[in-house]
Amino acid sequence: MVIRKVGVVGCGLMGSGIAQVSAQAGFPTVVREINAGALEKGLGSIRRFLQGGVDKGKMTAESMQQTLGKLEGTTEIAKLADCDLVVEAATENLDLKRELLGALDSALKPDAIVASNTSSLSITELGTFTKRPERVLGLHFFNPVPLMKLVEVVRTVRTSDEALEAVNQWCVAIGKTVVNCGDSTGFVVNRLLVPYMLDAIRVFEQGLASRDDIDNAMKLGCGYPMGPLFLTDYVGLDTTYSIAGIMFEEFKEPRFAAPPLLKRMVLAGRRSRGVGASGSGGSRAGFRFRGGGAHPPGMAVLRALRLRSRAGRRRRIQPRDRARDRRAARRRAGILAGRVRGIRAARGAARAGRRSLRRVRRDRTGGRRERRGDRHRAPWGRRRAASRRDHSSRPPVPGRRPARSAGRRSRRSGEAVGMSTSCIT
Ligand code: 3HC
Prior knowledge:
Oligomer: single chain
Number of helices: 15
Bound molecules: 3-hydroxybutanoyl-coenzyme A
Strand content: 5-15%
Low-confidence stretches: 275-280, 295-315, 378-393, 402-425
Radius of gyration: 37 Å
CATH class of the largest domain: Alpha Beta
Helix content: 40-55%
Largest sheet: 8 strands, mixed
């Protein structure tokens, strides 16, 4: 079988790129979007990329027009009926793909091949949504599709050799290098790449380094074209989160679990670059794109969550805590009452003897000039005064060496051994 006409479902970040490279290679290509607005947005991004190529001298204006001439946009699935290969590049949502693949199966000619650009869902499972599982396979492109050379071609146990061969040939014809692999979640690239990106977020979340330093470390230390945080923004925070969820569900390995910071950024609507033509809103702010902070935003978020959880604990007070609190409150009230009584007594004595209040206090403290802390304590705070012992006159405890005899003396006393001196070994 030879592929002559191609259909692409979805004209977002990946779909538009796939449609572009297909048309650029001379294949008549129909690209379908859910509505006219999303379609125009996707086709607009293709036009801009091609114009960028013309401006850079990578292609001529004529070949740009030829490419655009091979492209047809539509919002109807029926327009894909005569395609030999249809690449599904919709959002990573199993229910959505089930519905879409069912509709494609009914609309396409019987020998058409259906490929999914999924990065993590099971191709075998996607095949069960059609009546042609032997003609279903995975075609995993990389972002930005026109510049990235690789395509992972994924076959299932049911994919026919004929379908695989036809798709491999088409990939070569559009200028890509093929890596054939089996149907395992994440295939080859994402199995290795996703834990790396998630680990970079964890490093950032823990405050080990700033976002720029993390990215520079991997760019300059390992020669990667992009740092991992920039790459996560580039792939899209929601896409990365969704892939991580699917991979964690499959393998149950902690390295695939999305870090809390990524989850919160996605929940807060920060999707970054991955907001494609068919993206459902969200902000373009990410780790490094527009509005991403240089230092871990996670710190503030996690601190706020901890505070909230502490407040929550306070609300759920146990009965024994209440009793303890009541006892503490009574004790505080008693101390306060004692202080008030003391102040009143001192004032009374001063009035009676026509002595100054300070004098009365001095008498009560045994002639010692009253210290600030003593004001409400001595002499009526008897309990406190009694506990204030002269430790220097305390008899040594048998078996315990006095602190000074341990040899830890200050520089001034002649023996330079202390916490901040170099003699500590
Ligand atoms: N038309 C034609 N050529 C163009 C072009 C255009 N509109 N725009 C750029 N180019 C060319 C440039 O001329 C240049 O070509 P040259 O090497 O011959 O000079 C080349 O493309 C690189 O372009 P730039 O110099 O403008 O940009 P950079 O050097 O910064 O490279 C990049 C950009 C290729 C995106 C590079 O940063 C990169 O490789 N990043 C890593 C991307 C990556 O890892 N992607 C995979 C993501 S994972 C994924 O998608 C899977 C998913 O499931 C998660």
